[in-house]
Amino acid sequence: MVMHLIYDIIYMLMRKKIFGLKSHERHIILQHLLPFAVRRILPEMVSAAVIRISIFFKKLSSPIIRISDMESLEADIAETLSLLETIFLPSFFDIMVHLMVHLPAQARIAGPVHFRSMWPVER
Q: Are 72 and 106 a contacting pair, CB within 8 Å?
């Protein structure tokens, strides 16, 4: 099942058209495939920031979370956003980018993300 999903995503990426993906498939791209793709394509500072965001979402989506991990994620994402502010124009930063700062606190309060996700409903 997972291999079929990865083949479909790679096929879409090769055609340079990504559409019709569900949120779970987008998370697979963000957490697993994007770090490999940007490592050699983008400049080192940009790829490091994108990879840090990918790692942030991978840790945030793990089935087991610890309070200490969420506290370190809050510090890491603030540092990553500061790094992004040195790279991108201020028009890049809207409320959606800022919401990443609050996700670890929400996970600390409500528990792991998979208990609140919409993936089972979408399938």
A: no
